[in-house]
Design a protein that fits this description.
The protein has about 120 residues and is an alpha/beta fold. It is built from 4 helices and 6 strands; from the N terminus they run αβααβββββα. A 5-stranded mixed barrel has the order 2-3-4-6-5. This is Glucose-inhibited division protein B.
Length: about 120
């Protein structure tokens, strides 16, 4: 009986976590994308809530952070506090992607949606 309840809890738990992600994003759907997609089609994702993974890197002068993949597709991250203690680590982030031809690609991290996405994986 106990094993039966546990087996059926998996889909319910996944649904609950999905609900948390949607609530954290204000009910918006979040598109899982690669850094390559954000790099090659940045204008198409401008203003969208996205879920992306990459390795955190930083530069000191001026201090800023970004995530990148092996071909060095990069997206700037804000706020700094979202990744400051994760330099060199692979992370999964959820946030609003922005693209401007002058200033480049950036992700405004949504802490609640990021926590929910990481809890579901």
């Amino acid at each position: 009986m106990q094993a039966e309840r546990i087996r059926h809890a998996g889909p319910a738990l996944a649904g609950a976590l999905l609900g948390l992600v949607l609530m954290a994003c204000g009910g918006e759907t979040t598109a899982p994308v690669t850094l390559d997609q954000l790099s090659s089609s940045a204008a198409e994702f401008d203003g969208e809530m996205v879920e992306v993974t990459g390795r955190v890197q930083s530069f000191d002068d001026p201090r800023h952070y970004w995530i990148e993949d092996h071909p060095r597709n990069r997206v700037a991250i804000s706020p700094d506090a979202a990744v400051a203690d994760r330099v060199g680590e692979e992370v999964r982030l959820v946030g609003r992607f922005s693209y401007d031809p002058e200033s480049g690609r950036s992700l405004e991290v949504n802490a609640e949606a990021t926590a929910a996405a990481n809890a579901s994986h």
